[in-house]
Amino acid sequence: MAVKVKICGLKNEAALEAALDAGADYVGFVFYLPSPRSLSPQEAGRLAKLARGRARVVALVVDPDDALLDEVVRVVEPDLLQLHGKEEPERAAEIKAKYGLPVMKAISVETRADADRALDYQGVSDLFLFDAKPPRGMSGALPGGNGISFDWRALEGIKGRLRFLLSGGLNPRNVAEAIRLTSPEGVDVSSGVEVRPGEKDPELIREFLKAAKGATEDTGVSTRMEMRSA
Predict the structure, then answer these.
(1) Distance between CA 28 and CA 189 in Å, rounded?
(2) Which of 114, 188, 120 is nearest to 153 (CA)?
(3) Domains of the chain (ranges plus CATH)?
(4) Rg (CA), the chain
(5) 8 is catalytic
(6) Which of 59, 95, 167, 217 has the fewest CB atoms within 10 Å, i.e. the most exposed one?
(7) pLDDT tens-digit profile of 117-150?
């Protein structure tokens, strides 16, 4: 079965349609004001309606308070909540219980010890996303979408133990190799299909999906598990 693909940080109908037409499994909307990809719940809700039934809708939040989550869940009706901040396992469990939605916890990785932190969320997070930890002193660093990768060997202790998506610096040129080396359930891309921060290129989206989906056939990587609620 093909590796799942998530196109994150979508902001307009043209990019969304490119992702959906090319076979994206997940489409992500960002609710974090410092990000150039941030949308209001109302804007995302309009796009989410176009995606409903064609891909799973993911709401990306960063250390959200309940007021933001209340509005996002009500207006957008996401299928999955992506926690991309410093949420502790207790907070992740609280969010999951309150909203009754699957949770994907993002883990910032530089070393193997960073990746192993995901084990603290076992039994809480339904899915994980491993992203690159921004270098110390990086100007304008965001929790994700910085266009940088990490040493994929840091996931050696995680492979086969947790369901995860790989993110961080992926693009149409390197995604097949990333899949071959890490055997993820899926891959996630944002800046790697942009012409400038926040502006997605429909052609790059199509190229990424073709490369990622084709990589499964070429390398023998298989998706071992499905979302329980899929």
Answers:
(1) 10
(2) 114
(3) 4-219 (3.20.20.70)
(4) 16
(5) yes
(6) 217
(7) 999 999 999 999 999 987 666 555 556 555 668 8
Tokens linked to 154: 């840091």
10 Å Cβ neighbour count for 115? 26
pLDDT digits (tens, 9 = 90+) for 26-45: 999 999 999 999 999 999 99
Question: Quick one: CA dihedral 70, 134, 154, 10, positive or negative?
Answer: positive
pTM of the complete model: 0.89
SS3 label, residue 188: strand
Which listed residue (25, 79, 126, 131) is catalytic? 131
Active site residue 70: no
Catalytic residue, candidates 8, 25, 126, 188? 8
Alpha helices by DSSP H, the chain: 13-21, 41-51, 66-76, 89-99, 112-116, 175-182, 202-219
Would you state the structure tokens that stand for residue 217, as one six-digit string? 């056939």
Q: Which amino acid is at 47?
A: L
Look up residue 155 and give its amino acid. Answer: L
